[in-house]
UniProtKB/TrEMBL annotation:
InterPro entries: FApF. Pfam families: Phenol_MetA_deg. This is Phenol degradation protein meta. It comes from the Bacteria.
Length: 312
């Protein structure tokens, strides 16, 4: 059964890769590694779940569009602390456990790039550095539905990313992206408690609205997150995690200076899970590092997560 799920996953990656194909600023509202890790399709065990992630992304790209200007040799350092709060009432839909929640990010960004500024009919190139700190774009989770049957667990969830972060078109970097995103996800987990095998994947589709300040609309995206984990006990597990993003429609609008731009990125890396008790409260600690091994028309770098979570 475990090998069957691995074969299915390989097939999905191969299918998506047949349409190998950027996003405004070189990144979008898709955050690799944040769509679950160990047992990602398992329902929360208690009424409330809180998770806190400290996330760091260090990346670069040769060209991108920011604030209506073309930039080259862009370097980005992105530090985020985000809290996810889930509420699980005693309520079911279609036999599935219903859950709702919110994702609240606080960000610190630093960029350095060569900036090509439009001036009338001409332009000039400047070396630019900028930074931004504050509330990022909040995500609402209007519903997440969880089913379970034996070793197979599945979930169907929808995320609405709200342009709540500060945004100024005159800045080269901002707390938010200034557009809405609608992200629909299906996740499946195979978890064998006897062998400790855990194979999980999450397949999602993101529709992005237009940034009206720049007339730039980032194309639609498909993302796939995978986790191959081994539990050695109830308190310790290791895994190999990966992700794949394919932007299958091009960027559009008068602000899309690079034209019908499309992005693709692949990343993989190790993950650790440690469960323990603190003041009689079960707490999970997670660490993972995802290295982008291939990126096309998008920032390329490394994602690092240090997280903890607990239910009550």
């Amino acid at each position: 059964m475990f090998m069957r799920f691995i074969i299915i996953f390989i097939f999905i990656v191969h299918f998506l890769n047949q349409n190998t194909i950027a996003a405004e600023g070189g990144y979008s509202n898709y955050l690799p590694g944040s769509y679950g890790d160990f047992g990602m399709a398992l329902s929360p065990t208690e009424t409330w779940t809180i998770r806190n992630d400290t996330y760091y992304y260090d990346a670069s790209t040769s060209r991108a569009v920011q604030g209506g200007n073309l930039v080259t040799d862009l370097d980005l350092q992105f530090l985020m602390n985000f809290t996810t709060l889930l509420y699980k009432p005693e309520f079911k839909i279609f036999g599935a456990q219903y859950t709702t929640g919110i994702f609240i990010p606080f960000v610190n960004l630093n960029t350095e790039a060569s900036l090509k500024v439009k001036e009338g009919s001409g332009s000039q190139v400047l070396n630019a550095r900028d930074s931004a700190t504050g509330l990022g774009d909040v995500s609402l989770i209007p519903f997440a539905l969880f089913w379970s049957e034996g070793n197979i667990h599945s979930s169907f969830a929808h995320y609405v990313i709200i342009p709540s972060g500060d945004y100024d078109v005159n800045n080269s970097i901002n707390n938010g992206l200034n557009y809405w995103s609608f992200d629909t996800n299906l996740a499946i987990t195979y978890l064998n408690l006897e062998t400790g095998h855990d194979f999980s994947f999450n397949l999602g589709h993101i529709y992005n609205t237009e940034n009206e300040d720049t007339n730039y609309q980032t194309g639609q995206e498909i993302h796939l997150d995978i986790a191959l984990n081994q539990f050695f006990s109830d308190s310790f597990a290791v895994g190999i995690h990966g992700f794949y993003l394919n932007q299958f429609t091009g960027d559009s609008g008068s602000g899309a200076l690079l034209g019908d731009f499309k992005a693709e990125v692949v990343g993989v890396g190790p993950a650790l899970l440690w469960n323990t008790k603190i003041s009689n409260q079960d707490v999970s600690f997670i660490a993972k590092w995802l290295h982008e091994v291939k990126a096309e028309n998008r920032l390329e770098g490394d994602h690092l997560f240090l997280s903890f979570a607990f239910d009550w």
